[in-house]
Amino acid sequence: MTEQQSVQTKTASPATPTLPDAQTVTSVRHWTDRLFSFRVTRPASLRFRSGEFVMIGLMGDPHPETGKQKPLLRAYSIASPSWDEELEFYSIKVQDGPLTSRLQHIQPGDQIILRPKPVGTLVHDALLPGKRLWFFATGTGFAPFASLLRDPQTFEDYDQIIMTHTCRDVAELDYGKELIENIRSDEMMGELLGEENLSKLVYYPTTTREESPKMGRITTLLQDGTVFKDLGIEGISPETDRAMVCGSMGLNTDIKEILEGFGLEEGANSDPKHYVVEKAFVG
Ligand code: A2P
């Protein structure tokens, strides 16, 4: 852990819910001054598919005249795998963001609102069978892949999984880097995913604003062929390659164009194809 990071943990006491759909925060970890992750209790009835998101939030300020409070909710990808007994989320801190300006101050024992209705397109069901699976993320767009990378199905269905993550600075890669290290070294993860499967996982982190071993936007590195050269891959084709994309609007639009250029078509839950896209939570 770097100096910038801090962890707070506390055994969740089942506090009396005072909010609708209340869940209790069990731990919070601040990764940088822009990023934090947290874990909350999981509603007993909540089932979800890796890669899906739920609406979470806090109560808004009281209305100046009526005094009524409304929930302030945003879509957040569930970062924990579907077998985990708690739920994990990975968030940006926007200083003037209506929700994250407050959410960044949560502490273990606090309550958040969580609507237990998972949805989303970054699910295995939305893709046709393939050999190689690409996960393209920028910033907090890593979250749904943190779930999918801990799902045995990801490793059972593909021969190779390539996790690309582009961030501004090196410290912003830490959440993903630590997760990948944990998947590779944790005995329980090895047993769950299959030791022999771990070699299928390729991690390709890049930064755009701070010096690191691999610099540049993933879009540029795909367009100029650097990624393929680095990984010893000929290219992307609809016969073998599948992709899931989660990042800023800009990344999503640009990657879509690149993937379509390789002949891939966008899929959906009801119409599985070669790739799927979701916007990362922004503020
Ligand atoms: P850049 O530094 O060149 O803007 P953010 O923190 O603003 O969400 O950005 C996360 C990362 O996504 C940054 O490294 C940023 O690069 C990169 N990025 C932003 N827009 C795009 C895009 N259209 N294609 C690829 N990467 C992008």
TrEMBL record:
<dbReference type="InterPro" id="IPR001433">
    <property type="entry name" value="OxRdtase_FAD/NAD-bd"/>
</dbReference>
<dbReference type="GO" id="GO:0034599">
    <property type="term" value="P:cellular response to oxidative stress"/>
</dbReference>
<keyword id="KW-0547">Nucleotide-binding</keyword>
<keyword id="KW-0274">FAD</keyword>
<dbReference type="GO" id="GO:0000166">
    <property type="term" value="F:nucleotide binding"/>
</dbReference>
<keyword id="KW-0521">NADP</keyword>
<dbReference type="Pfam" id="PF00175">
    <property type="entry name" value="NAD_binding_1"/>
</dbReference>
<dbReference type="GO" id="GO:0004324">
    <property type="term" value="F:ferredoxin-NADP+ reductase activity"/>
</dbReference>
<dbReference type="InterPro" id="IPR039261">
    <property type="entry name" value="FNR_nucleotide-bd"/>
</dbReference>
<keyword id="KW-0560">Oxidoreductase</keyword>
<dbReference type="InterPro" id="IPR017938">
    <property type="entry name" value="Riboflavin_synthase-like_b-brl"/>
</dbReference>
<keyword id="KW-0285">Flavoprotein</keyword>
<feature type="domain" description="FAD-binding FR-type">
    <location>
        <begin position="18"/>
        <end position="125"/>
    </location>
</feature>
<comment type="similarity">
    <text>Belongs to the ferredoxin--NADP reductase type 1 family.</text>
</comment>
<dbReference type="GO" id="GO:0042167">
    <property type="term" value="P:heme catabolic process"/>
</dbReference>
<dbReference type="InterPro" id="IPR051930">
    <property type="entry name" value="FNR_type-1"/>
</dbReference>
<dbReference type="InterPro" id="IPR017927">
    <property type="entry name" value="FAD-bd_FR_type"/>
</dbReference>
<feature type="region of interest" description="Disordered">
    <location>
        <begin position="1"/>
        <end position="21"/>
    </location>
</feature>
<dbReference type="InterPro" id="IPR033892">
    <property type="entry name" value="FNR_bac"/>
</dbReference>
<protein>
    <recommendedName>
        <fullName>ferredoxin--NADP(+) reductase</fullName>
        <ecNumber>1.18.1.2</ecNumber>
    </recommendedName>
</protein>
